[in-house]
Amino acid sequence: MFLAVVTSKQSDDASSDAALVQRLLRKDMLAFEQLYDRHSRIVYGLVLRILQQASTAEEVVQDVFLLLWRNAAQYQAGRGPFVPWLLTLARNRALDHLRLKSERQRRREDQADVLPQIAQAPQYEKQLDEKRRAEVVRGLIGSLSAPQKKAIEMAYFEGLSHSEIAAALNEPLGTVKSWIRNGLLRLKEGLIAAQ
Q1: For the chain, what is the mean pLDDT?
Q2: Quick check: 93 and 47 in contact, CB under 8 A?
Q3: pLDDT category, 167, cuts 50, 70, 90?
Q4: Which of 183, 97, 110 is nearest to 142 (CA)?
Q5: I want to staple 173 with a disulfide (CB 3.0 to 4.6 A). Which of 37, 56, 166, 195 is the partner?
Q6: What's the CATH architecture for 12-121?
Q7: DSSP one-letter string for 133-188
Q8: Euclidean distance between CA atoms 59 and 124, whole angstroms
Q9: Which of the pair, 120 or 180, is modelled with greater confidence?
Q10: Which CA distances in Å does 133 have to 43, 98, 150?
């Protein structure tokens, strides 16, 4: 039953895409915006995988959707769904860009022996992973008891010693050490479980 629902939704999306392309033939800007909103992410992902450079990938995605705006009549619903056609268009544009880039680079190398600068692709996965870990740590700290949380914050964010924390909280030194030790163990276990 679930498979039938997914298949039905995909079928609805495909027919909806075909209807939007028909409206696009009449230069309907709203149809263009809907197609862009619906498919720009997947087009960007494909182009980025090919080009390995975010800014260039963004330019090619703009190119692809500009081509779609100008040449919507090239899509024929009878030959297949819209998304594979759009992804083929994006792939071809990305490969054209690579060919053009390599041709320009070859010409430059023929003219001079200067090495081109190497651009490093953004590390989106690393940024997302760091953000996810920070959210996990915040959640784990929030799950600690109030005394554990306060003692750990004073030790690690204010730089106080265990004795200073005990004096500030008016608690025995052994109790403060237990709060910190047990709190850190809970944080460690939570981080291990989250991996």
Answers
A1: 80
A2: yes
A3: very high
A4: 183
A5: 166
A6: Orthogonal Bundle (1.10)
A7: HHHHHHHHHHHS-HHHHHHHHHHHTS---HHHHHHHHT--HHHHHHHHHHHHHHHH
A8: 18
A9: 180
A10: 28, 36, 21
CA torsion sign for 79, 81, 87, 93 is: positive
Contact 131, 97 (CB under 8 A): no
> Can you give the pTM of this predicted structure?
0.48
Residue 12 in this model has a pLDDT that exceeds 80? no
Which of 178, 130, 132 is closest to 155 using CA atoms?
178
* Vertex 118: Cα angle to 114 and 110 (nearest 5): 30
Q: Do 12-121 and 125-193 agree at the fold level?
A: no
CATH topology assigned to domain 125-193:
Arc Repressor Mutant, subunit A (1.10.10)
pLDDT tens-digit readout, 44-97: 988 888 888 888 889 999 999 989 888 888 888 788 888 888 988 899 898 888
